[in-house]
Each structure stands twice: as structure tokens, then as C-alpha cells.
């Protein structure tokens, strides 16, 4: 590579893409040939009452030579059973690809798509084998389950003469399970206080003000406790305040919070008080009357909240 170093990401991509076109599972025969007892169990379990699967007479009345297997059983004829899949064996190319995906963090799997194309109906006595070839491995995609890669393979089902009886395009998502971060409990937002949370979302700490007597109030409410007026607007707080009171919460722990958790009543320079969290300070260093200033916590994409930290610089 004439002095150029390949990034680890590019090297990984190359190893992954090397599987495209390769045989993951070589032509592997099923345990039993197509047979009536298995068809009987299948149609009973599925509640499929089409007579062409069990009655030779009914099948002949449709122009067939005799009974046929339901198309939906195709995969069943090539399944090896629980014992075979759990028996010790040398790693197959399939095992190796799964290990390589796990190396990239894609440890979870979910089937996303199965597209069958049937070329002829199966009849009792058919011996079916299947071969699986990798068609594509997508770049990493963001999905609701987590970042992952779509692995598409083509399975070809063949009879004893090697003639293809069906092909199946099989797509799975191999993904990195998204670490679910616990969210802070949702505040009880209602028509009387939604303006306050909407302003917080824009990083503005507002205080409700009576338009009749100009008294400030918090928490928000529809009516002025001083003059009973329902007419109000807001002022934007300076962000300066002092610790009026505080507690250090240890229990019960909630996964959205870090402990010890400092919960304080901060008195704003404007005169109203609010319940908030103190940040950037150890519990032992908090003192009543301590000057604090406003900061913002982006708790999650839906929730921005005011928090307060000690004033460190002397004015
Ligand atoms: Zn008032």
C-alpha cells in the first residue's frame, strides 16, 4: 500500500465486504425427504384445509399427479433440527461472518425480510438441499433498534438432480443494541405552566408577572395570589440567585439521575424561588446563602431544564 495506512474502519469494511458473493452455507441436504406425515402436522398446525396436500384424489382433480407439499414448508425441509445446530462443529463461513459482525459490535439480530420465488411444487420423495450465498452487506445504517448493517443472502433450494425449486432472498439486520438511557421523569405540563417549559426549551428562565399589580410569582398559576387578577405576562430572569435551602438525595435511586443529587430551592435576584438542581459543586461545599448562577441542562431532546452552579468569579 505504498506508504498509505488503511484506517481500522476501512480495514474492517474490506474484511466484511470480502464475504459478498461467498457461500455461507454449502448445499446442505435436509434430514428427511418430503413426506406426508410432516405435511399432515404442518397443515393441521396452520389450519390449512386445502385438500391437495393430503388427498391424492383432490390433487388429481386439480390436474396434479398427486399430493403436493405446501409452498410455505420449503424452509422446513432443509432445517436440521435442534440437535444438529447445537452439536460441536468447526466454525463455518456463516459462524465466521457472525463473529466478524460481533467484532464490529453488531451482536444483535432481527429478521427484516424474506422474499420467496417458487419454481415448482414439491412432492413426497423430493430430497431438498439449500445453499446460502451473501448478496450484500450494507454500510452502517441508523435504525430504531440501533446502528446496524443489513445482511442480504440468497438461499437456493434444489432437488436431488440439482435443479432449483425455489429461491429465497433473506435479509437480517445485525445491529449494535442501542444503550437505552433512562429519561428524567416528565414534568406535569399543563395549560397553566407550559409557557415556562417552552421558554426553558429556548434556554430562557422566565417568571410569571401579574399585569395588574406587577407581582412576580412562581410556580406558575392562572391567578395572582396578591390581587386575584387573571391577566399576566412574563419577565426573563437575570439568572442570578442564592441557595435558599437544599437537600442531598441518596435514596431511592432513579436511573436518570447521578447521586448524590443536590436538590435546592434557589431564590432568584427577582425575588421568586424555584426548586432546581445544583451542579458543579460537591454536597459538602454547598452553603445556605451561597451565590449561584443559572446554567442549562439538556436532559434529553424533549426536556431542557434550568440548573444552578456556584458563582466562582468575584465581580
Ligand atoms: Zn396581581
UniProtKB/TrEMBL annotation:
Domain ChsH2 rubredoxin-like zinc ribbon: 197-232
Xref: InterPro entries: ChsH2_C, ChsH2_Znr, FAS1-like_DH_region, HotDog_dom_sf, NA-bd_OB-fold, Thioester_dehydratase-like
Domain ChsH2 C-terminal OB-fold: 235-296
Pfam families: FAS1_DH_region (PF13452), OB_ChsH2_C (PF01796), zf-ChsH2 (PF12172)
Organism superkingdom: Bacteria
FAS1-like dehydratase domain sequence ranges: 29-168
Classification via PANTHER family: BLR3430 PROTEIN
Protein name: Uncharacterized OB-fold protein, contains Zn-ribbon domain
Species assigned in the record: Saccharopolyspora shandongensis
Amino acid at each position: 500500500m505504498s506508504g498509505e495506512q488503511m484506517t481500522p474502519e476501512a480495514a474492517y469494511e474490506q474484511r466484511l465486504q470480502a464475504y459478498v458473493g461467498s457461500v455461507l452455507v454449502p448445499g446442505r441436504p435436509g434430514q428427511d425427504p418430503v413426506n406426508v406425515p410432516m405435511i399432515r402436522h404442518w397443515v393441521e398446525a396452520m389450519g390449512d384445509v386445502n385438500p391437495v396436500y393430503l388427498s391424492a384424489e383432490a390433487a388429481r382433480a386439480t390436474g396434479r399427479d398427486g399430493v403436493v407439499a405446501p409452498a410455505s414448508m420449503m424452509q422446513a425441509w432443509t432445517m436440521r433440527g435442534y440437535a444438529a445446530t447445537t452439536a460441536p462443529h468447526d466454525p463455518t463461513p456463516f459462524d465466521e461472518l457472525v463473529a466478524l459482525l460481533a467484532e464490529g459490535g453488531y451482536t444483535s439480530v432481527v429478521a427484516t425480510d424474506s422474499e420467496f420465488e417458487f419454481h415448482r411444487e414439491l412432492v413426497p420423495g423430493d430430497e431438498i438441499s439449500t445453499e446460502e450465498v451473501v448478496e450484500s452487506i450494507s454500510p452502517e445504517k441508523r435504525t430504531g433498534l440501533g446502528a446496524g448493517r443489513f445482511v442480504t443472502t440468497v438461499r437456493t433450494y434444489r432437488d436431488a438432480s440439482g435443479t432449483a425449486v425455489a429461491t429465497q432472498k433473506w435479509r437480517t439486520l445485525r445491529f449494535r443494541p442501542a444503550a437505552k438511557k433512562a429519561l428524567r421523569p416528565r414534568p406535569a405540563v399543563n395549560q397553566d405552566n407550559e409557557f415556562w417549559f417552552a421558554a426553558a426549551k429556548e434556554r430562557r428562565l422566565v417568571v410569571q408577572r401579574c399585569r395588574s399589580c406587577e407581582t412576580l410569582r412562581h410556580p406558575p398559576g392562572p391567578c395572582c395570589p396578591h390581587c386575584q387578577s387573571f391577566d399576566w405576562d412574563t419577565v426573563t430572569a437575570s439568572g442570578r440567585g442564592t441557595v435558599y435551602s437544599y437537600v442531598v438525595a441518596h435514596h431511592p435511586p432513579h436511573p436518570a439521575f447521578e447521586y448524590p443529587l443536590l436538590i435546592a430551592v434557589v431564590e432568584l435576584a427577582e425575588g421568586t424561588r424555584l426548586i432546581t438542581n445544583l451542579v458543579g459543586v460537591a454536597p459538602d461545599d454547598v452553603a445556605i446563602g451561597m451565590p449561584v448562577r443559572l446554567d442549562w441542562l439538556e436532559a434529553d431532546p424533549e426536556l431542557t431544564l434550568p440548573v444552578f452552579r456556584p458563582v466562582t468569579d468575584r465581580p
